[in-house]
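User: Fold this one for me? It's DUF2202 domain-containing protein.
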Amino acid sequence: MAGGGRGLGGGAWQSAVPAQVGSDFVYLDRTAHREEHLAQIRSTVAAYRPGELSVEERDDLLLMREEEKIARDVYLRLYDRWGIRPFDNISGAEQAHMDAILALLKHYGLSDPAQGLELGRFHRAELQDLYDRLVQQGLQSRENAIRVGLLIEELDIADLQNAAHRAVKPEILAVYAELERGSRNHLRAFYRWKQGLGIDYQPTHLLSDDFERIAHSAQEDCQ
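Assistant: Here's what I get for DUF2202 domain-containing protein.
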């Protein structure tokens, strides 16, 4: 892994990046915070009796499980290549998002579409293609890696919003809302790097006004 900052030499790059806090205490605290939120999610889900899912609710849950895996796997690859701290931090959050969706899958007795899949592998051809394209783009340059991070978080937010509009069960809506808060925080993190490095980026999955509103709003308490 490139956690020591492989390839980060060069004054312009070093001076442009946002300040990072790197103590072990901070990262242990972040992990504990995620575990606490995940325990709350599992408790919320367990409080409801598993009724019958609509076809749309079922399909969205299965898709979300693999879509969160895309985010986690891409970020792990890009952190390994560039050593940019947000990819390490946020990949852990994406694992927590995967675990939250898995709690819903188990609640409803659905098979896990990500079970047994290695890093970067997906059952759906369209998701495999998306992963391959995002990794290829992100490996081209550090700037492209940040663009990929922004694009993934845009897509996550848009898809979570659409899935929430199709869902009616409160436990599903609660999990989607938690994941969307997390994705907004992730977008803000990548946006700070975009601004610090002067990277050009045009949103493609969110309206420009919505993208900017999220990027400039305060961090939220979530996984």
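One thing worth pointing out: Residues 1-17, 19-28 have pLDDT under 50 and may be disordered.
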